[in-house]
Amino acid sequence: MKSGTIRSVVNANWFTVAPGIWGLRDAFVNVYFIHNAVEKKWILVDAGLKRTASKIKQLADSLFWPESTPAAIILTHGHFDHVGSVLELAREWDVPVFAHLMELPYLSGLSAYPPPDPWAGGGLMSVVSPAFPKGPINISDHIQLLPDDGSLPFLPDWKYIHTPGHSPGHISLFRKRDKVLLAGDAVVTTRQESVWSVMMQTRVLTGPPRYFTCDWKAAARSVKALAALEPETVATGHGQPMKGEQMRKMLHKLAENFRELAVPSHGRYSREAAITDAGGVTYVPRQVSRITPGVAVAAGVAVLALTAWLVYQGRKSNVLAS
Q: What residues form the membrane-spanning segments (predicted)?
């Protein structure tokens, strides 16, 4: 790491996950950097918010200079907070972006995701979720499909697991030799529906963020698949990394009691999933309830509060990095 930039990088909320793996938190979402020391290449996993590009480039320059351009970008899925900077970075770096086949419609302009579920419960992030972008974006000039065999380009020690539910083509990444799991949003380590938990980064292993999860049966199967890996370290799209036996107990408890612990009682997709195929969304269940004026006002206030917090976080990062 270049010593001249250590101070600004530290202030940008970066953290070490395991040897050769680093994370960067921007506001409420994480991106990850994986180094292939043998080939002297690195991979970016996810691309954060639209404002995250400069922070990603700054940390990459500090970690990998002079090899500051990655070999590729790998997307766990295409929700707005994981692809915000992907087009800017792919164009600037001129690198491929890899994703699962079932995620392709939302990354090539073919289909928007199923609507967010403000009735999923858990906190204000769910209430304001209809204001979040639901796509699609179009990065078809850069997108490439992941191999069918579970291998990951440029990462021979890793494999990916298709973990649908939160999104149709969601994937998680696993390094077998030390059992490091980059879960994406298949599970997360904070209560992402709660603004308070997001701000405080309260550490707890939970199911995928409720407001964007459109197939809860698939999500349950995905969590069981991840628990079967018996990971030693879990790093997710939201929250801080968790390690060790206590984490595994929480993961198995979540897998075994998924409906009680993760599935909303009255959410739009709680009893009936959205239906998707390789072309995008083909069916969406009816909304469970109409938004009343009181709920609309509360949502508006929540949007303003969340926006103010995000602006503050952005200004804080800029001041600390200067």
A: 291-312
Q: Are 192 and 207 in contact (CB under 8 A)?
A: no
CA-CA-CA-CA dihedral for 124, 129, 131, 134, to nearest 10: 160
Of 124, 189, 180, the residue nearest 157 (C-alpha): 180
Give the separation between CA 90 and CA 312, rounded to whole angstroms: 28
Q: What are the structural domain ranges in the chain? A: 3-321
E-strand stretches of the chain:
14-18, 21-26, 29-36, 41-45, 72-74, 97-99, 143-145, 151-152, 155-162, 171-175, 180-184, 233-236, 242-243, 275-277, 280-283
pTM confidence score:
0.87
Whole-number Å distance between alpha carbons of 145 and 171: 12
pLDDT for the residue 186: 98
Cα dihedral 307/51/43/67 (nearest 10): -150
Distance (Å, rounded) from C-alpha 45 to C-alpha 117? 26
Residue 174's Cβ-side half-sphere holds a number of Cα atoms within 13 Å equal to 19
Q: Is pLDDT larger for residue 125 or for residue 28?
A: 28
Q: CA 77 to CA 166: how far, in whole Å?
A: 9
| pLDDT higher than 70, residue 319 | no
List the end-to-end C-alpha distance of the chain, in Å, as a whole number.
18
Distance from C-alpha of 212 to C-alpha of 235, rounded to nearest angstrom: 19
Q: How much is the pLDDT for 320?
A: 41
Q: What confidence tens digit (pLDDT) does each residue in 81-117 have?
A: 999 999 999 999 999 999 999 999 999 999 999 999 9
DSSP-assigned letters across all residues of 148-186 = TTSEETTEEEEEEEE--SSSTT-EEEEETTTTEEEEETS
Percent of the chain residues topping a pLDDT of 90: 72
* Rounded (5°) CA angle 230-202-182: 35
Q: Which overall architecture, per CATH, does domain 3-321 show?
A: 4-Layer Sandwich (3.60)
Q: Note the pLDDT tens digit of each residue in 112-125.
A: 999 999 988 867 77
- Please give the distance of CA 236 from its chain centroid, rounded to a whole number: 7
Residue 48 scores a pLDDT above 80: yes
